[in-house]
From TrEMBL:
Pfam families: adh_short. Keywords: Oxidoreductase. SUPFAM superfamilies: NAD(P)-binding Rossmann-fold domains. InterPro entries: NAD(P)-bd_dom_sf, SDR_fam, SDR_oxidoreductase. This is Short-chain dehydrogenase/reductase.
């Protein structure tokens, strides 16, 4: 029996994952901003659930929550950083407060929980850390720049972390969901639209349509995350959903072509 620590456990993908984790017999420290939303889990699964009211941007509260879970269950085997929101808006449209809040939740929130579990995982010389990123952690689209910047930061930190903790048999995996109807956009802050950037919002939806993305089944992701947890040597990155590989091939081919086209300036800069 493993013990999981899951943020954003009350809705969206996290709600499906919480149910699947408990259904298979594991323990779960379920964290959410609204702890009342976790009552159905505690009613159904009893002592195998530790419901935690948690704002992941509060570093001290994160430390307390992780310590509480470790004391209750004897340690955390798997951390899933799922809490987050998706700010929609062009770079100039987004307020300073919105930009900071986006980074605080999506990047720093995951950083604080990751740091909080590492001591215990290193001591036991085993553990799994799953970071819920996005296809947008690998590609940037107009009108999602601040949201995707938070995911790009998560990607870099997690890739470095994976190399740092591999010696302790701690595995880090970035989960890259593509398109799932979870209500994330509807429940997230939106920047005040400026007519100067109407074309950017149109380009965002055009890019999605052109890529052929089809909404996936959120419930199906639960079986995928359990399979990932049971994989002896999990990948650093895994896409959840289809058509992501095609989009990435186009993205990276374009990056390399652009760098090769301007290699003469690279050589000029070398001296």
């Amino acid at each position: 029996m493993d013990t999981w620590f899951l943020t954003g456990a009350s809705r969206g993908l996290g709600a499906h994952w919480a149910e699947a984790i408990l259904e298979r017999g594991d323990n779960l420290a379920a964290a959410a901003r609204d702890v009342a939303a976790l009552k159905p889990l505690t009613d159904r699964y009893g002592d195998r659930v530790l419901a935690l009211e948690l704002d992941v941007t509060d570093r001290a509260a994160v430390d307390v929550a992780v310590t509480t879970a470790e004391q209750r269950f004897g340690g955390i085997d798997l951390l899933v950083n799922n809490a987050g929101h998706m700010l929609v808006g062009a770079v100039e449209e987004v307020s300073a407060e919105q930009a900071r809040a986006q980074m605080d939740v999506n990047y720093f929130g995951a950083l604080w929980t990751t740091r909080a579990v590492l001591h215990g995982m290193r001591s036991r010389r085993r553990g799994r850390i799953m970071q819920v990123s996005s296809l947008g952690g690998l590609i940037a689209h107009p009108s999602l720049g601040i949201y995707q910047a938070s995911k790009w930061a998560l990607e870099a930190m997690s890739q470095s972390l994976a190399a740092e903790v591999a010696a302790y048999d701690i595995h880090v995996t970035l989960i890259e969901p593509i398109m799932f109807p979870t209500g994330l956009a509807e429940s997230s802050p939106q920047a005040a639209a400026h007519p100067a950037y109407a074309h950017a919002r149109e380009a965002l939806y055009a890019d999605a349509a052109r890529s052929g993305f089809v909404p996936g089944d959120p419930a199906a992701t639960a079986q995928a995350i359990l399979a990932l947890a049971d994989t002896p040597n999990p990948p650093l990155r895994v896409l959840f959903g289809t058509h992501g590989l095609e989009a990435l091939r186009t993205e990276y081919a374009g990056r390399l072509a652009g760098l090769e086209q301007w290699d003469h300036l690279s050589r000029l800069a070398q001296g």
